[in-house]
Amino acid sequence: MMPSWLSESIPAPSSARMEEARNRQEQLTKPRGSLGRLEELAIRLAGLQDRPLPTVERVRIVVFAADHGVTVAGISPYPQSVTVEMMRNFSRGGAAINVLARAIQASLEVVDVGAVTDPGILPGLLSRRVDAGTQDFRTQPAMTPEGLRAALRAGAEAAQRAVAAGCDLFIGGEMGIGNTTSAAALACALTHKAPFIIAGPGAGLDPQGVARKVEVIEQALMCHQHALKTPIEILTALGGFEIVALVGALIAAAQRRLPVLVDGFIVSVAALAAVRIRPELAPWLIFAHESAEPGHRVVLEAMQAAPLLQLGMRLGEASGAAVAVPLLRLACTLHREMATFAEAGISGA
Predict the structure, then answer these.
(1) Does 1 reside within a domain?
(2) Are residues 31 and 89 in the same domain?
(3) What is the pLDDT of residue 2?
(4) Quick one: which of 70, 94, 181, 210 is 20 to 30 A from 57 by CA?
(5) CA angle, 331 as apex, 41 and 266 as ends, to 5°?
(6) Quick check: is 38 in a domain?
(7) Are 343 and 288 in contact (CB under 8 A)?
(8) pLDDT at 349
């Protein structure tokens, strides 16, 4: 059963603001359409933010971290202990997303929603622990319905904090050894594609490791074949707490008119599940990049999404989305600061 707040209304982007922004673009001192997708971004952000001159100055990045019971199947080259070790690295400011957040002057939260080991109190880390990791989904559901609701709520609360802080843009990220296997299984169930099409190297598997991952996902899909009818059932059977928290965050952000910049494969899988739950969410999602994970393109195509960048990234942590933030900022700056033909005394077309 879905929590009642998931059904709260998601507003449509302001068509009036988009038309206003489109008219301004046509008056700027350039040939119409010559800035390509930068023009589209400015127009779209104007509609999402309901502002004639959109801005992307205050950015909130939230990385959700959790562990996965399926790691006992040997589907990662890294031990499960890396999840909590990386949480300590986030707290010390030493991870890629810390560097990127500083570079783009974004605020960063790390939320523990279910690492196997409780990291305790760390600077910059919020504890919203649902459980000590999920179950091995080859033989049982990854989580209980109560666990799913708690993870959704943890994500929603993160979006609410971003809104309360006056943020212009929300970015969700993830950390959890084994989570590309969970995301691939979810993608298979949501798109009805075979695991060999979706599963990839994740954190660095060799071809034999990828073949093992495919086998594990096939076992999970067979085990839960009669319980994969709705997105909520699919998330309960195959998800991770950090992936479910992302679903909650994306929906809650859109409910509060906060645009979302979507990261790579795992966050895109969460976005696909969220859009299947609430189709009205789709306009609020801007896709940052296409990752090197082979299943990402399938997931993007399922949402008819066109990512901004293709850099061969597959790190996670919201790193690809952080890299795309300057593009959004430049789109807004061009929209706001370029002179119109009339202002510059230049003849129009």
Answers:
(1) no
(2) no
(3) 80
(4) 94
(5) 55
(6) yes
(7) no
(8) 77
Q: Each residue of 289-326: pLDDT tens digit?
A: 999 999 999 999 999 999 999 999 999 999 999 999 99
**Where residue 348 falls among pLDDT bands split at 50, 70, 90?**
confident
**Using CA atoms, how far apart are residues 251 and 148, in angstroms rounded to an integer?**
15
Residue 261, token pair as written in the block: 């910049």
Residue type, 35: L
CA angle 230, 234, 239 (to 5 degrees): 150
- For 243-268, what is the mean pLDDT? 98
| Entry pTM | 0.97
Tokens 């609360």 belong to residue:
157
Would residue 146 count as lying in a domain?
yes
In the chain, how many domains are there? 2
| Lookup: tokens for 66 | 């959790």
Mean pLDDT of the chain: 97
Task: Give the DSSP H or E segment for 285.
Answer: strand 285-287
Residues labelled catalytic: 317
| pLDDT band of 203, cuts 50, 70, 90 | confident
Distance CA 244, CA 273 (A): 9
- Residue 102: exposure state from Cβ atoms within 10 A (0-12, 13-18, ≥19): exposed
> CA 175, 322, 333: angle at the middle one, nearest 5?
160
Output the CA–CA distances (angstroms, integers) from residue 235 to 102, 134, 177, 188, 260, in the order listed: 33, 12, 18, 12, 21
Strand order in the sheet with 285-287: 125-127, 107-114, 59-66, 169-175, 260-262, 285-287
pLDDT at 241 (0 to 100) = 98
Query: Are 42 and 164 found together in one domain?
Result: no
Region 36-44: mean pLDDT is 98
Per DSSP, 301 falls in state: H
Whether residues 222 and 129 share a domain: the answer is yes
Same domain, 338 and 234: no
Angstrom distance (rounded) from CA 9 to CA 18: 21
